[in-house]
Automatic annotation (TrEMBL):
GO terms for biological process: ribosomal large subunit biogenesis. Belongs to the eukaryotic ribosomal protein eL24 family. Pfam families: Ribosomal_L24e. Gene3D superfamilies: Ribosomal protein L24e. This is 50S small subunit ribosomal protein L24e. The keyword Transmembrane helix does not apply. It comes from Rhizophagus clarus.
Length: 159
């Protein structure tokens, strides 16, 4: 069973699904759904459309360079069936998927590493900016002091 990739969004197309557009120069474009086909006809750039894999990779949200991607390439030359080769291939496929999942988790963790501190700084800035919306003046001061004390202790303990 051959699984194709959508030309526009790079999602998987299963047999019997999607549409195929063949240009006059015999270049084949496969689309997973009409949304992708319409975007292609409107000459939209997949790297600028936010929901595509191309955008996510160009924006640094997904891994782009990794040795595990080499195994996914399409091979057009059929290989003679060999039972040992098949068993080793299936084992290797499982192992490769585990390695890729682990690398993706590490990539995501590194990408999200500074978000907690950034979010906390934004919250403090928001409170300082709109302190009059919190309540009575005495409550404001108590709340703000408590919040600052908590954030300072969090920084000391967190590091």
């Amino acid at each position: 069973m051959r699984l194709e990739k959508c030309y526009f969004c790079s999602s998987t197309i299963y047999p019997g699904h999607g549409t195929m557009f063949v240009r006059n120069d015999s270049k084949i474009f496969r689309f997973c759904r009409s949304k992708c086909h319409a975007a292609f006809k409107h000459k939209r750039n997949p790297r600028k459309v936010r929901w595509t894999k191309a955008f996510r990779k160009a924006a640094g949200k997904e891994m782009t360079i990794d040795s595990t991607f080499e195994f996914e390439k399409r091979r057009n030359v059929p290989v003679r069936y060999d039972r040992e080769l098949m068993t080793t291939t299936v084992k290797a496929m499982k192992r490769i998927s585990e390695i890729r999942a682990k690398r993706e988790r590490v990539f995501y963790k590194n990408r999200m590493s500074g978000n907690k501190e950034r979010e906390k700084a934004e919250n403090i800035r928001e409170i300082q900016k709109n302190i009059e919306l919190i309540g009575a003046p005495s409550d404001k001061i108590k709340f703000f002091n408590k919040f600052l004390r908590y954030s300072i202790t969090y920084r000391i303990i967190g590091r």
